[in-house]
Amino acid sequence: MFRGYVGGVQDSFNGIAFCVPADVPLSQASAVVRKYLADNPQLWNEQANVLVVRALKQAYPCQK
Fold it and tell me: What is the pLDDT of residue 64?
């Protein structure tokens, strides 16, 4: 279920809020989000989609 949620957020915001390369598997993007959540338990009260976007934006920022 977790990977599916991350995949849905990734599909919705990739190229807009962050830029995950096409060759990055969903398992890797999910691992990035899982680590972000583990490293930031103080943020667990925030909306899930916001946390996923932040994690992926931090790991895969779009090039300006």
Answer: 74
